[in-house]
């Protein structure tokens, strides 16, 4: 993660330590965030995180699940999307949306699955809302 990207999300990721004890240093929080793309985008198991990181897989998993349950990623995406829209000279909150969809073929395993009659494949259809510039938008 670049320094500019980290500066944009630091306030949301690094907690204010008000419970006493020794607070965790900021570079460790950055390591937690840097480790996440390996699991989220590449699909590797948590235990298979590269050992180059200064944080353990278990601590990274713990913080990821906490952040997810508290809605941190939704807030990060909303903030980054608003900043990008402002930089483009647009209003921070989009007023229009475009729906995009794709069909994903399922494996030939017995069990519940759908049939996309338009493409004549077994599988599911995924939908996502995008603003007019192609950025993901949460449903309203």
Which tags fit this structure?
single chain, 140 residues, alpha+beta, 2 domains, 15% strand
What general form does the structure show? flat
Cα separation of the termini:
30 Å
Number of strands: 3
Rg on CA atoms, Å: 19 Å
**What percentage of amino acids are in beta strands?**
15-25%
Quick structural overview:
Pfam families: DUF4096. Helix content is about 40%, strand content about 15%. It is of the alpha+beta class and about 140 residues long.
Structural overview:
Strands 1-3-2 form a 3-stranded antiparallel sheet, with no helix packed on it. 4% of the residues are buried. The mean pLDDT is 80. It is of the alpha+beta class and 140 residues long. It has 4 helices and 3 strands; from the N terminus they run H-H-H-H-E-E-E. The protein has 2 domains: 85 residues; 33 residues, no CATH class.
What order do the helices and strands come in, and which of them pair?
Layout: H1 3-13, H2 26-40, H3 57-69, H4 72-87, E1 98-105, E2 114-116, E3 121-130
Antiparallel strand pairs: 1-3, 2-3
Helix pairs in contact: 1-4, 2-3
């Amino acid at each position: 993660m670049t320094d500019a990207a980290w500066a944009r999300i630091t306030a949301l990721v690094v907690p204010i330590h008000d419970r006493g004890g020794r607070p965790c240093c900021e570079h460790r929080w950055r390591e937690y965030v840097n480790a996440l793309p390996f699991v989220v985008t590449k699909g590797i198991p948590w235990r298979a995180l590269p050992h180059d990181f200064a944080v353990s897989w278990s601590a990274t998993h713990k913080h990821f699940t906490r952040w997810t349950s508290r809605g941190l990623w939704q807030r990060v995406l909303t903030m980054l999307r608003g900043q990008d829209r402002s930089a483009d000279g647009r209003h921070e909150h989009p007023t229009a949306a475009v729906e995009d969809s794709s069909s994903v073929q399922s494996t030939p395993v017995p069990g519940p699955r759908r049939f996309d009659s338009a493409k004549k494949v077994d599988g599911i259809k995924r939908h996502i809302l995008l603003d007019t510039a192609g950025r993901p938008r949460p449903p309203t």
